[in-house]
Amino acid sequence: MPRPLDLESPRVLVLNAAYEVLGLASIKRSVLLVLSGGAEMVAESGRYLHTPSTRIPVPSVIRLKRMVRRRPGRVPLNRRNVLRRDRYTCQYCGQKGGELTVDHVLPKSRGGLSTWDNLVAACRACNLKKGNRTPEEAGMRLLKPPKPPLLPLFLSDLKEVPEAWRPYLEALLR
Ligand SMILES: [Zn+2]
Question: Which ranges carry the HNH nuclease domain (predicted)?
Answer without folding.
Answer: 77-128
